[in-house]
Structures are given as structure tokens and as C-alpha cells.
Amino acid sequence: MTEVNEPPKGAIPNGDGAEPLLKLRGIDKHFGPVQALYGVDLDLPAGQVTGLCGDNGAGKSVLTRTIAGVHQPDHGQIYFQGKPVHIRSARDASALGIETVYQDLALADNLDIVQNMFLGREKLRRGLLDEDSMEKTAAETLSTLRVTTVRSIRQPVASLSGGQRQSVAVAKAVMWNSKLVLLDEPTAALGVVQTRSVLDLIKRLRDRGLAVMVISHNLNDVFEVADRIAVLYLGRMVVQGPAADFDRQSVVEYMTTGTASGRPYEPSASASGEG
Amino acid sequence: MTADSGQTPAPTAGAGTVDLTADAKVEAADIPPELVAQSLGQYFRASWARVRGGNSGVLPVVLGLVLVAIGFQIANSKFLSAQNLVNLFEQSTVYMLLAIAEIFALLLGEIDLSVGLVMGLGSVVVAELVQPTGANWPWWAAIIVTLIACAAVGAIQGTMVARLRMPSFIVTLGGLLILEGVAIIVLGGSLVGIGNSAFHNEVVIYDIFWGSFSPVVSWILMAVIVGAAGIGLWVREANKRRHGLETPPPSLTALKILLMAVSGIALVAICNVNRAHFGTIEGVPYIILIVLVVLVACTVLLQRTRFGRYVYAIGGNAEAARRAGVSLPAIRTWCFVLASVIAGIAGVLFASWQVSLTTNIIKASNSYVLLAVAAAVIGGTSLFGGRGKTIHGVLGGLVIGGIYNGLYLLGVSSQWIDVAVAAVLLLAALVDVLSRRGATGQA
Amino acid sequence: MTADPGETPATTSARTVDLTEDAKVEAVDIPPELVAQSLGQYTRAWLRQLRSGNSGVLPVVAAIVIVAVVFEIITPEHAFLRPSNLVFIFGLSTVYMVLAIAETAVLLLAEVDLSVGAVALIGGVIAFKLVQQPGANWPWWLALLAALVICGAIGAAQGVLTAILRIPSFVVTLAGFLLFSGILIVILGGADSSVNLNTSDPNQNIIYEMVQGLISPVVGWIVLVVLVVAYGASLWLRTTSRRRQGLTAPPLALIAIRIALVAIIGAAVVIICSVNRGSALKSVTGIPWVIPIVLVVLGIWTLVLGRTRFGRYIYAIGGNPEAARRAGVNVPGIRIWAFALCSATAALGGILLGSFFFGEYSTNTADPGQLVLYSIAAAVIGGVSLFGGRGKAIHGILGGLLIGSIAYGVSLLSLGSLSTPLEYILPGAVLLAAVLIDVLSRRGSGGVNRV
């Protein structure tokens, strides 16, 4: 068995000592005989972007879906704003303020931007859809996030580019008083320019005080936006800490072997770290 | 059901990548029993595991046959009489052929709603062509042209589905409408019959359904066919075994040959009983041989040729097939052509069976498509594509024929028979959906 | 076409970048109303959209015109456009219109209901049977309601099998078609029975009048004016209110044109119906009651599909069922309701059918298979997509008119023995043509690409 070193429980360094918005402690999840997560701890502080890294099959999607309410952990506890919670469904997650943007974006191509952003949560006026109010709110959200180059907020989503669709999906997640946004591979299918704008969007989310978790394979993107990095290896959280503590090579090593240079992770002494 | 010999043990954590995409529900149940069984006993245990895993194969239809036989025999003691049974076989042949035709579409994950009307059109064309006062063609020319015409219909529909990517149920729905109109035009508005025994061509067509081999010839034919099939099967299995390839246990092969022999003997014995009220009618009807030939040809086509392999591939995962270089439009078009040709063969049988065809009979031929789909699905073919065999069509056709025959014997009116068939179709579809869910765990 | 006014110019601030870099996104993909600020811009944008293959209702309108012209030429004595025939066509078309709208509800989900024909006939027969005197002798509105509810329940049952057991809808409704064709005969009382409306009974007469009864021209004009004013005013007010709030709205000139179009078409219908199509002795003028009835159906369905959550969810499921599910939409529930409402609406269509055939329902009145094929053809050629997510109630109206014109036109041609087969061939051909256009138009606008 390879040696895996976990930081002592409860003492995860996040630089400022404040209670993280979301805390996972000792999360286990298995599907039949296959164990997907082993005793995973995770901190997602507000106002910071956490990059979740891991090789294929490490458990990133399972972890995301557990937070999003799609799966229920077999053991362990989830704390939201310091209080223990049970997230049994996507609705529970939404009620808490947790929104997820999946890799396939979950947008209906035949509906326009406003209709997609309000899907499932339409506003009514006298029993009928309140199109005007929904359009205004959607427009406000998009402009706050500085997504301004969409030609018309009423154009069908099918006619948007990949980056625009991603922005709409993110805006949809953010519109609902969300406190935590989970993004699964947001830049996976995007070109260079579009990636840039999505990353900027993510930073804007952080600047608004939301907690953001980004799953990504692309370490360039991760190092661009992440304030914290967490690495999963074979279902275990092998390391997490301020992004400044890591470099690309160490992250890759953690992802593929569970350790870096044979040495266990040592948290940096200061909050801002080196480099 | 646990230990299956030959299955690699699950990797231990840490030794390498844990494949979290592994479907936890993939179990021994999904491996065909013949591959893992080393003895007859193991074979049956593995088969049972597969059935419980949801992949029931021909089990439902065999059960259905048994149920139908027992149920109707209790209701009416004449059901299992030799006379009635031959009647049943004869009627079922049309359903069997239509089911086989439908299977070609279903395997692709498509559907052909026009097979009933293709049969109707075929029957009218062949009848009209042998009319002495009209075209007066020799019977063989009439049949060939009929089949070519049906093939053309299939080609047109197939092209619309395969190259224009129009939904098959709409294409064949529109197709059946157009064919109905064309059939009525061909019929010339009145009726056409092949019952006049003065004209040789008509007599031949008539005999296709109503004629039979003499008992002696029947036995000889049966012996030859079963003998050839049995020897062929044995030799093939022995060859594979000699080369160290995966083969079922010899006892299984012997059992299969025995089953063939028993069914053959039973069939001929039943048919050789004199079933006429006056005089003598005995022997195996010609149509049974015809259906057998079609069955064997289609089975070989689907199981032992590249074409057949590609059909299953498209039904299983069209995109994967496309990337592997399979020409989707060609295979798809050919399947619709084959479906229509077989429906055309059914049409020739239908003309022979009905003896005289009217506009009402043409309109009624529309309802046969439901029987075809029901027979295919009852037999074990999946509506979603990629799963099914021609033998399913034959067995399913027998069940449908049994239900029809049984209800008719009980004096049930035709509307209620329709209701019963609809219920059976739904049930079969439900079994298909549930078995898919059970096997793969998908919703 | 580049700079669209109304688009925020790319700011020079550091962060915004033009995301519209996707080469395939062109101006053509955006509905013209959204980006046009003037009528001129709208027309240009609309033409661009046409050329790219996204043609909207243009094909069906063109088809209607072509059919009218062709039949006018080839009908004996050019009788096709005679007012009496036209009114007949209106009446016949309403049945197809209602059935097409019913089918649309299901087509939007990317499903299909092959039983609408049989269910329509069942609904009609149930209603007719319930008002029989001597017999059940129910009040007409109760009989109608019962027929709608029963057929709605049938639809719901089919919906349950489709939505929850996930049996493909075409199998379920195919079985339903067979089942209810058989039950229809049973309810009627046998293969040669029929049920008739006795017009001397005022209760039964009301149902008879649904298609056969007429509104006097004067009342017709009044109703038309009221409707046009109401429609126009609401449209105008809404548009101006949206413009005032800075939301997207079509140019006012376009709104004016739309209102004018509705007024003109309405006036044409009233005028045609006001022409005396009887004789000098017994004048027959007036608008068949069925026209306002169908307008009500159109209005209700347009409202439901376009302005309610339920309608929104139907489009969402047709577009991306997974997205709808994740958004918390009760996908099976919506599906079941859609099937139920489809069958209930079909029942209304069946009642109208019986009324159209002079209050007589027999096993020969209509062929349920033909009805369903006409309904699907009407919906699809009107513009409803078979692949789901695209279509409106008005499409059913236009498609129904086209199918009705063709069906009636063929019967006028006195083709003798060819007329029966043509009754089958033409709708089949029209259906295939309609679907072909649908498939090709999807390809043109870069939509669904099936492997």
C-alpha cells in the first residue's frame, strides 16, 4: 500500500482561521462493492476559489455530487456555515444556497437565456409567467457578472457559443442567492479566448463573496483562479491547502501517486506562502 | 449466484487505478452461459443466473407458449387436437414471417409500421398478375415481380430513414397510407381471387398455402433436415473444440440436436394425422418448409455474416459502428429492403390463404403490423435495438397465432380479440423495458 | 450585417471580452424580432433567416395558397373557392385543427400519440350516447364534460405507461389505438350500429349546432371587431410597456402589421361566411359556431403553452429532459398531464367530427387510423417538430386548414374510383413531405444531428 499522509483532522490550514462555508469531515461513499470516497475531508471557505484536482476515477465527480445532494454519504458529516446538515436532494442543496454547474451545462437548447435561467423556478404573476420581471432579473444578473456580449437575452441558447453557454449556466447558478457554486470542468470544451472569460467570471464570483469549487484537469486554469487546491487520489483527499503551497509538479505527483517527492505535505508557515 | 469460473477478481485498492466507472451491477449474469459452462449442470445454473439478471432470452415466449397451450386446452379441449394444431401452424406462418420482417427493423432500433400493408400490396399484386383474364403471367414470374416491387418499397422507405434521417415510424406510417391507396388502385376497386382451379397459375398460388407434402415425403424431408443440421452442428462444435476455442459442453450440443429431432418428429407426426372432414388431407404443409427456409436464411444472415454483425452493432451503438467504418445508410437501407421482401413473401402466402382479396381485406391487413411487433417483442426482440434473433419471430408468431386461434375457438368476437392482442403487446413491451432496466440498471 | 443597435458596445475595461467567437453563430440564428429596431431591419433579418432554412410558418402558408390555386384551377367549374365550399372546408378543417393541436402537446415532448384518432371517436360517441333521449339524457354540457374527462383519463393512463414505465410512446399509443378501435365498436353496439343526434331535442340540438349552427353575420362582425380590438390593444399595450421598461420588444410597426393581418383574415372569414350560400328562397348565411369554438381552443392552448409554467416545462422536456429534471421539474408528471390533455382535446375534436357529419356516428364515420395520420401531418406541416421542443398551437390551426383543404378538394374532383385511394395516398404524401421539410430545416439551422 502506498503511503498516504493526511493532515490532522480539524486543523486544515486555510490562511485566515475563519470558519469555512462548507466543511466535509470523514465522508465515505461506496457503490456496491466499489468504494468511491474514503474518509474525505474538505474545506470550502467563502470568498475563495478551491480547485479540486485528481486523476480519472479519483472520485471528483462523486464528491461534487455528494455536496450537490445527488448522492448521500455513507459515513461522515457535512457542515454548512458551521452547522451539520443532511443534503438529501438537489432541492435541499439549493435551499442551502449550493448550486452546481455540471459538465453538460443542463441547458435546454430550444429555450432562450431567460427561460433557461429560470427553469424550474419561474416567477408567476396572476397565475401566468411573469416574463417581464424574469427578463429584468436575468439581465441584471448577466450585467453584474459582466456578461455583456450576448446579443439578446431572448435568443435561444442553441445559438450561443460555448463560452456564452457556460456563462449562462454559471449565471443561472448564481442568480439564486447562492453561497457556494460547484463547477465541473467549466473550461473543458472551450477555446483559449472563451476560457479566459469564464475564468474571469469565476474570479468575479469569488469577489462577490461566494465560495467556489472548480473541478478541473487543466492545471493552468487551476493555478490561474484557485486560492486553494485540494487533490483526490483513489478516493482519498491526500492534500489540501493554499494554492501558494503548491506548484504544478507537486500537484501532478499528488494526483498520480498520492505523495510529492516521497515527502508528506507540509503546510506553509505564513498565510501568503511562497512565490 | 456467485463464482463464475474465469472471472478476474476485483482489483484491490491501491494496487492500481480503481475504476469508479465500473458499473457495480455488472455481474456474472451478463455473460452468456455457454461461454462459462463446462458441464450441463453449470450451463443451467448460469442460464438461470442470466434470467434472474433480467436477460431472459426466449424464456418468456416459451413460458407463453406453454401457458397458451394449457390455458386454451382447458377452455376448449379441441385446442390441442392434431387438426387444430395444424390449423394453428398454418395461420401462424403469416405472423411468423411478418415478425421476422419486423425484426430486421427492430434490431436497428427502428420500426417498420408498413409491413402489414406491404403484405397486403404484395398479395394483391401477385393475385392480379396471375389472372388469366388480365396479365396472365406464369406464377413464378408473378412472385418474382411481387418481391421486387416490395423490395422497391423497402428501398424507398429505407432511403428516407437511412439517408434523410427521417424518423422511421413516420416514414413507414406515411408509407402504409400510400401503400393502402396503391393497393386499392391495383385491386381496381372490386376483388381478385385465385380460387379458380381451371387455371394452372392460380392453382399453384393456391397450393402454396393449402397444399402439403405427402406423409412419406414429410418424414424423409424431416430426417434429411434434422440429420443435416445435427451433423453440421456436431461437426462444427467438434472442430472448435479441437482448436481449443470456447465451446459449450458436448452434452449441450447433444441436447440441442435431440430437441431439434423431437420437435421435427412431433411436427411431422401431428401433420400426418388426417385432418380432413371428407377424404384425406395429411402431410406437412408447404408453408412450414417455406418458413423454415426463411428462418434459416435470415438466421445465417444475421448471425454468420458481416452484414448481420453490423446490424447488431448499429442497434447497439450507432455512433460506435459509424466510427468503426460501418456504412450506416447502406446497412439501414438493406434492412428495410429485407423487411419488405419478407413481408412480400408473407403477402404471397396471404393471397393464397385468403383466396379472394377485397378492399376490406386490404384495409384489415393494416392491423397485422401490431401482431408482427407483438410477436417479435414477445419472442424476445428488444424495441430499443441491438437484441433479438429470427427464432424469436417464429416463436412469438406461434404464441400470437395460438392466442388468435384459441380466442376464436372460444367464440370471442374480433373486437375483443383486438383488445386482447393490444394487451399482449403492452405486456410484451413492459417485459422488454423491465428486462432492460434489470440488466443494465438504467432507468 | 454587423452592428446591431441595442447591443452594448464592447467596453474598454479590462475584463469583458467578446465571447461571440463561435464561427457557427451567425445573425441568422437569432429570431428577427429580438434584434430589429425598425421594420426594415426586421425584414432583412427575416429574409436572412429564411435563406438559412429556418422558415417558420412560411411553408404551410405557401402550401395553403398553392393548394387553393391548384384546386381552383382543376376543380370542375372552378368551384373550389366558392363560398359554400369554403365554409365547408372551414368546418371540416376545424376537426383536424383541434386534433392537430391535441397531438402538438405530445409532439412537443418528443413523443407521439397514435391513438388520438381512436380516442377522438370514443369521445364523440360517449358524448352522443350520453345525450340520447330516451337513454341517459344528460344535459349537453355534462355529456361533453364526461367525454373530455373520460378521454383525459385514457390519455393519463397512456401517459403513465410512457412516463413512469418508460415503454416507448409509439408502442403504448399503438396498442391504445388498437384497443380503442375495438372498444369503439363495442360502445356503439356492434359493427353496424350508429348513434344519432335528434335535432328536435333542444339539448341534443346544441351539440348538433356546434358545427352546423350559424352565427348571424351582424353578430359575427360585432364579435370580430371586439376580438380584434381586444387582441390589438393587449398586444400594443404589452409591447409599449416592455419598451418603456427597456426590455426586448419587436418594432411597433411590426405589431401594427400583425394586428392588421388578424383583422384582415378575420374580416375575410366573416365576409365569406356572410355570402348567401343557400338559395334565394332559403338564405343560408352566417359563421359556423365551430369557428369561435376553435378560436377558444387556440386561445387556451396558446396561453397554456406560452404563458404558464406547465407549458414552459413541456418545451423544456422536449428540448432537454435531463436539464428539466435537474432543474427540479417533475418530468413524469408533466408528461402524464400532456398525454391527458391531448386525449381530452382529441375528445372535443371527435365531438366536432360527429357534429360535422350531421350528428351521426357510425363505424363508418371516420377511420381512426386516417384521423391520426391527418393530425400528425397537420401538426408537422404546420411547423411542429417531431423531435420535440418546437411548435405552437397556431401551427395546428394552419396545418389543419391545409389538410382539410386537400381532403375536401380531392373529394370535389370526382375522380371516381381514384378518389378512395387518393384519400390515403395524398395525406401520406403530404405527411412525408412535411416531415422531410422538418428534417431538412433542422439540418439547415444546425440543429439535431441524429447518427
What does this 3D model show about the protein?
The complex is a heterotrimer of chains A (275), B (443) and C (451). Chain A has helices at 60-68, 90-96, 113-117, 131-144, 162-174, 192-207, 219-225, 248-257, and strands at residues 22-31, 34-44, 49-54, 75-80, 83-85, 98-101, 124-125, 128-129, 180-184, 211-215, 228-233, 236-242. With 275 residues, chain A is an alpha/beta fold. Chain A has a 6-stranded mixed sheet with strand order 6-9-10-3-11-12, with helices on both faces. Chain A has a 4-stranded antiparallel sheet with strand order 2-1-4-5, with helices on one face. A two-stranded antiparallel ribbon of chain A has the order 7-8. In chain A, helix 5 packs parallel to helix 6. In chain B, 46% of the residues are buried. The two termini of chain B are 24 Å apart. Chain C has a domain at 56-213 and 289-436: ABC transporter involved in vitamin B12 uptake, BtuC (Orthogonal Bundle). Chain C has helices spanning 32-35, 39-51, 58-74, 83-107, 116-130, 140-163, 169-188, 202-212, 217-245, 252-274, 290-307, 309-319, 321-326, 331-356, 368-382, 393-412, 419-444; strands at 194-196, 214-215, 287-288, 360-362. The two termini of chain C are 34 Å apart. The model of chain C is unreliable at 1-28 (pLDDT under 50). Chains B and C meet through helix 7, helix 13 and helix 18 of B and helix 7, helix 15 and helix 17 of C.
Write out key terms for the chains shown.
heterotrimer, A: 275 residues, alpha/beta, Rossmann fold, 6-stranded mixed β-sheet, 4-stranded antiparallel β-sheet, 8 helices, 12 strands, 29% helix, C: 451 residues, mainly alpha, ABC transporter involved in vitamin B12 uptake, BtuC, two-stranded antiparallel ribbon, two-stranded antiparallel sheet, 17 helices, 2% strand, globular, disordered N terminus
Percent helix of chain C, as a range, is 55-70%
In whole angstroms, how far apart are the ends of chain C? 34 Å
Main sheet of chain B: which strands, in order across?
A: 1-2
Assembly form of the protein: heterotrimer
Overview in brief:
The complex is a heterotrimer of chains A (275), B (443) and C (451). With 443 residues, chain B is an all-alpha fold.
Record the SSE blueprint.
The complex is a heterotrimer of chains A (275), B (443) and C (451).
Chain A lengths: L21 E10 L2 E11 L4 E6 L5 H9 L6 E6 L2 E3 L4 H7 L1 E4 L11 H5 L6 E2 L2 E2 L1 H14 L17 H13 L5 E5 L7 H16 L3 E5 L3 H7 L2 E6 L2 E7 L5 H10 L18
Parallel strand pairs in A: 3-10, 3-11, 6-9, 9-10
Antiparallel strand pairs in A: 1-2, 1-4, 4-5, 7-8, 11-12
Chain B lengths: L32 H4 L3 H13 L6 H17 L6 H26 L7 H15 L9 H24 L5 H20 L3 E3 L6 H11 L4 H28 L7 H23 L13 H19 L1 H11 L1 H6 L4 H27 L1 E3 H6 L3 H12 L10 H20 L4 H27 L3
Antiparallel strand pairs in B: 1-2
Chain C lengths: L31 H4 L3 H13 L6 H17 L8 H25 L8 H15 L9 H24 L5 H20 L5 E3 L5 H11 L1 E2 L1 H29 L6 H23 L12 E2 L1 H18 L1 H11 L1 H6 L4 H26 L3 E3 L5 H15 L10 H20 L6 H26 L7
Antiparallel strand pairs in C: 1-4, 2-3
